User: Fold these one by one.
Assistant:
Number 1:
Amino acid sequence: MDERKLSQYIDDLNAGKRPKEHKNGLQKEVDEQALFETVRKVRLLREVEYPDDLFRQRLINSLEAKEKPVRNRRKRFAFIGAASAAAILLLVTAYYFLPNKASNMVYAMENAMKVVRAYHGIIEVSETNELGETITQSKREVWADKSGNYYIKDLDGVSRESITANNGTQKWQLRPEERTIYLLPAFPDDYRFTFEIGNEINDAAKAQTVEVIGQETIHGRKATKLQIIPDGGSPYFLWVDNETDLPLQKVSAMQNAIQIKAEYTSFELINEIPHDLLAYYVPDGYKEEDTNMEQAAASLEEAKELAGFMPKLPGQVAEGYALNRIAVEKDHETVKLYYSARDLAGSILLTQSKTAGELVPSPMAVLGTVNQNKAEIINSETNRSIRWQEDGMEYGVLGTASLETLTVFAEELSGGNVVIPVSTENPGQPQVKVDVDLSAEENEQKSVDAGHSPWKLDPAFVSQVFASLLLSPEGITGDYPIAYEDIEITENNGIDAIAEIKDEKSIAKYVYLKRLVRQDDTGIWTAVGYDTDKR
């Protein structure tokens, strides 16, 4: 056996192929067999490699190939001495421990983000048209930390000198043109600034393909340029700092004759956001506008006096979390319990109020159960929540922590299990199937990614349009013949959903929907069938 044969064996394993030595079932020399076994074991020490975008086609080709006769070719094997085997083994080990930046780039970014405590930088966002003309949309100075706190100052544009900040307890927005500072609810906080590093890494991790294009210098920093193709979306480029393994610049595909670039013109890792930036105060000459309807409570007993009921505490909380604030939203008689963990990212908010009617889940939610009670479960990129009713009370668990962490709080609060439907569960077959043009749906997904037709993300709205078009196939003018209020999502596991049409004149009694292009909260819904009969 020579080195070329061993090299081919390695290449086959590295490409995810089955080496022919395994296929032929030939007897091998003892040393040769042991060496091949060692190579396989060394390879197992590498990071897991996932199928690339050509996996599906390779699988199809391999199945087709099985239908054709294959001739096994026997080759003679030469004896390899123990000394030669040891020398080649050293080469094999070195080969497999060499860094593979192309396959490990996302992994490196995720690991880098885990140790980030806070960062500070200046973000510029600009747009370029197809004529090459560029204008700056915004320029901001940003401080952000792993706990979700931030301080953002607009440096240019119509909002120049405006400040938006959140210290976990208070959120405010200072507007110099109005000489006003607005107090806002600190949590949940849907505000996210453009090119937030953690979000960019999450998007890259979910992408269909990530490919290293080359090396470039961005604002004096050496960076690796990646081409990223999201599942069902348009490709874009991301530049990753070679020193910190964190994103520095992003350029979108040209969409609607516009290309967007977001970049950190300066960037540094810091231990924490300066305390004075997160300290709330009203500057001289400014008035305070409090839009936050919460009132702080010093104890559960005080919360009871304000809300009219004794709030319930979970039996235990997720590891590392502790109750740090109690508040009451008096207008809705809702008690809010804020939990945080010093060394963990993501706050948790528990809400409790008396029921004011049947639970009406959001059409965007997955439908599950908490302690055998119907539950609304939302698992989006920025916020997650579990909401249910039980014993005359409505409970909610909200946060930026993982859904698993929220589940711990919900189960401890209810005393029962949280059941979330899995995406592999089949909702059944429709009586009438709808032919779908997948290429058209892929283009729709790209359009939605660019900010158009956001209603395609709402399964109830998609059902409304579909059911209305069945009644008016020539087109719709004015109001839809089927009202949005007459649509109820009865099943939703995040990929498949069923909508009940509660309108007697509707042809479709139930509409079956599916996320065909992308199976996450950014994926559009498509009607794939319907039932004409009531269940």
Number 2:
Amino acid sequence: MSLPASEQASSGPRQLALELPAPPATAEAPLVPVRMVNEYVYCPRLALLEWVDGEWADSGDTEEGRRAHVRVDGGGGKLPAPAEVDGKPDFVARSVTLASERLGIIAKMDLVEGEDGTVTPIDTKKGKRPHVAEGAYDPERVQVCAQALILEDAGYRVADAAIWYAGSRERVRIALDDELRAKTRAAISSLRLAAAVGRLPPPLVDSPKCTKCSLAGICLPDEVTFFRRGLAPRPLNPAAHTALPLYVQEPGARVTKSGEVLVIEADEKKTEVPIGDVSELVLHGPVSLTTPALAALLREEIPVTYASSGGWVLGHTVSTGHRNVSVRIAQSRAAFDERRCLAFARTLVVAKIRNSRVFLRRNFKAGDEIERDATLEALSRLADRAAHALTEAELLGFEGEAAARYFRLFTSMLGEAGRDFPEFSFEKRTRRPPSDPLNAMLSFGYALLTRTWLTVLSAVGFDPYLGFYHRPRFGRPALALDMMEPFRSILADSTVIQVINNGEVKPDGFVAAGPAANLKPHARRAFIAAYERRLDQEVTHPVFGYRVSMRRLLEVQARLLARHLLGEIDDYPHYLVR
């Protein structure tokens, strides 16, 4: 937070100098953590994202902050009652939690020192002391002043406050003058009122604060501003996660825990994977998971997906779930509005057809070029007609015709090696069951894509079972099926083409089971590896222009949908391949 004083002073709400009545602290409007008052002065949107919506993302700064607080968080000493402070020898109490019902705030104070009948709250900051006239920036001054107000409300005498900067090992005195007290009370009231209203404040515009904010990928400040004001976003790509999905598909395998490591036991072999390296655990087929391992994953908010050997999702275990109720309320309102559902469904189908057309045009390798051109023209025409469909039935007709034309030329995208194998011949799309190896891979790819979207939507705060185009049905992740439509060709179909053309999956990788074709375990492993590589590939976002991996792009798209449903942006921008 080493920013110019002018930037700090202008960052908070304009009405800080005006005291507003705050709603009383109740079960519906609980006590505000003083740390959130600091965030509100720094950035009102950040405070509500963290406190009201329950959003959080770690960064190097937050981890450094935890390390700086290790000693004070360990506790020690005891804060005497107010009546016992006078005449008591000097004392120090660490990690003291106090609240004020009257002010509606609660604070965990890093340090409280007692001397000569008065107490001094001291807050610890990881960085170096800023060289500004007030000794510290406004958010930090307001935070420690709020702690002082709580102590005074409890009956203690407070002369001043202080901030300890661990980076420069300096202690800075904070004068509790009338102006700072008024600013602090106004910030508390403004935050409580904003939380009661329940509407997210607009993002900061072109602020240097956003470039280092760990919640930039959740807040999407530049992306939202782009649709509101037309300002080109800076490359504020969400930081890439090092954690990746862990797939376990060996029949009879067992997943256990040892310390902070997952242990996979299969065929008398043991594989160890640190829990911190896992973003999601996916269990295919008869694989067992111990209760301690499941509990460790839930504590870290790592979801567990149970799937059939063919990849179809059977269940999904998450922790307590996302706390952002406002997204689910907005989703429900839209899902029960037939006009909005049809309007959104039109854009889904249009995006799906256009992306399929581009994928076919780019990857066509052999076949009748006249038929190819006719198909591309037909797909373009169907996308235009889908954009003006009057009913859902009419829209389904356009989608079905486009899919039939697209799959008719699917094998034209196979390389010479793939075309040499008769096992990879393909006439039409079949499912339930897939009748040939190519259909088996398409079904498996779509199952993986469904699971990916289910996980992304759950993490952002959506109900993945309540969709707009696909109708809700028991056990059907309708919204995940909605959101995957534009990505079928560019993620699932592209993986199928890649594994065939690269020779990663060959005809001996399949087994026939009656009328169905299924992938053998080694072929599934190769396919999953190729799919995950595809998710890690970076692309240029066609709207914002920055580079981002496909895995992170899915999250950006999900968060843009949330911003659309909450009314921050007028139209949802689908990802359209150029």
Number 3:
Amino acid sequence: MTVDVLIVGGGPVGLTARALLERWGVRVLLVEKRVELSPFPRSRLVNVRSMEIFRQLGLAEAVAARAFRPEYGRIRFRDTLFEHDFASAAMIGVHAPVPESPVIGVVTSQDRLEPTLLAAADTADAAVRFGVEVVGLDEEEGAESVVARLVDRRSGEETRVRARYVLAADGANSTVRELLGIPTAGPGALGHVTTVVFVADLTGWSAGQPAGVYATAHGSFLPLYPEGGWAWVVPTPDDPERADWLGLVSRALGPDGHGVRAEVLRVQHWTVTAYVAERFRHGRILLAGDAAHALPPAGGLGMNVGIADVHNLCWKLAGVVRGWAGAGLLESYEAERHPVAQLNLRQAVANAQLMFQAQERRREQLRAGAGASVPDQVELPWSERYFAQLGLVLGVSYHSGAVLADDSSTPLRASHQAPSQASLQAPSRASRQAVPHAPAEAPPHTPPQLSDPDPDPDYTPTAEPGHRMPHLWLTPGRSTLDAFGEWFTLLTPAPEEWERRAGSSPVPLRIEALTGEYGDLCGLGPHGALLVRPDGHIGARWTDRPDGDSAVRDALAGISRSTRLPTRSA
């Protein structure tokens, strides 16, 4: 069997990659060693950027329909599940809409998300084989394909598949990464955790106090589905096989379980790990998601970073496979995503540490207040905006051969260092003035005002090359982000002029009109333009009419034929 891309791993990252590649007309085979989709809730937060990607795939409404209401986008800290909050924090972009995006993130369990993603691509050119494991990968030097050896875990039958590229999204314990011998860097294993899935009638109590996570001194409780179901997440005991999980859950609920009758359905033991692979690519094999970077769950970054990985990668694979891009374009994947993974790893570890600090402050309060009144609240070691993370989610900037400097065909080369928090969240003063926040429901004829207060200082929209194109309403209900798909998009106040200028190119391109007000906000003159890549990041910007008629063709050729970047320094 021969395919364009073999995807290894059937979790949210692999399934999203399959849906993206299918839309590009790329022939795909996905293999997953489990015999079915995971029955465990696992990742539970779909952030606003992932929902933008799902909107592009036509899936956002289906994902939201199976998710919790926005008010569940909150974490509550309590002594026991049934007591009052001693602290609370909203998940910005989930708890309520933000003007920086046309969508809102959701709290939903991974076992509800995966079936929606699986159904998103159902053609013969996007086949899926469950219960099949990769046991070998052979890539001869100079060859134009990889031969994967696959074993059916039920029958033991071995088969071979030839693929032009392999996309490994097979999790933190990646078989592919191990076969390639790619090392990882980071803290590694941070602890062993158990998730207990149970049912109990807590609706009368939780309806008026909704949250996605209730962090208590006896573990964290997570509502799983809008219609019911719970998970209890706790450090794994010394002898988990002999543990009385029903008794442990009942005691964790409080004295006598507060009369609640619980039934344990499933128990899963897992390890919290923290690392980034030293390389995301080995020849024709590329790593994504947890195979490339494993992040602690605090803050809900891990799955979302992986979805952004494949959103970045799949259009590049499609271009190379379909012939309108050179193989050098794939070099930009690691250059762009490796620094993002490093930054998210640091943030996720910091999130976990700060959550522990909040609980430790409460324990100190309780010890100091023994025999006396205990304060109702704890001062959190972060502001209410701590879990916003919009700078990480929407403010990522890419520097690679697939991004050109303003008004030129010169690539923005990667520095090969993880960008600092400040570099992601604080664009130049000119950029801050260029694109303020667009009101979430503003019609296109009402541009955002420069004097509007910034609702989240951690993210400032900017139209500088390398950044995600800011959300602006082109027409009622249609965002700039809705203009992007399986093509490059040229946004300009002068579409007819740029139609003539664009000419003919093998690279798919569409031209969209941008109102004069929005052109000004994006730093464009009346004859300027933005060239936006299929992943929604700005690949080039001309602030006004460029010299010569080949600017668009040159930019498309420069981006799609990116040359090899220097090797990352140690």
